[in-house]
Amino acid sequence: MPVYKAPLEDISFVLNDVLNAEQLSKLPGFEDATPDLISSVLEEAAKLCENVLQPLNRSGHEEGCHYENGVVRTPKGFKEAYETYREGGWQGLAFDPDYGGQGLPHTVGFVLEELMCSSNMAFAMYPGLTHGAMNAIRAHASDELKAQYLPKMVSSEWSGTMCLTEPHCGTDLGLMKTKAVPSDDGSYRITGTKIFISAGEHDLTSNIIHLVLAKLPDAPPGIKGISLFLVPKFLPNENNEPGVRNGVMCGSIEHKMGIMANATCVMNFDDAKGWLVGEPHKGMRAMFTMMNSARLGVGMQGLGVAAVAYQNAVAYAKDRIQGRSLSGVKAPDKAADPIIVHPDVRKNLMQAKAFTEGARALGYWVGMMIDLVEKHPDPVVRQEADDFVALLTPVVKAYFTDMGYEVATNSQQMYGGHGYIREWGMEQFVRDARIAMIYEGANGIQALDLVGRKLPQNLGRLLRRFFHPMQAELEQSQENPALLEFVIPVAKAFGKLQQATAVVAQKGMARPDEAGAASTDYLRIFGLVAVGWMWLKMVKVAQAKLAEGADGKESFYDAKIKTARFFVEKMLPEVDFRFKSLMSGAKSMMEMDADQF
Question: Does the annotation mark 440 as catalytic?
Answer without folding.
Answer: yes
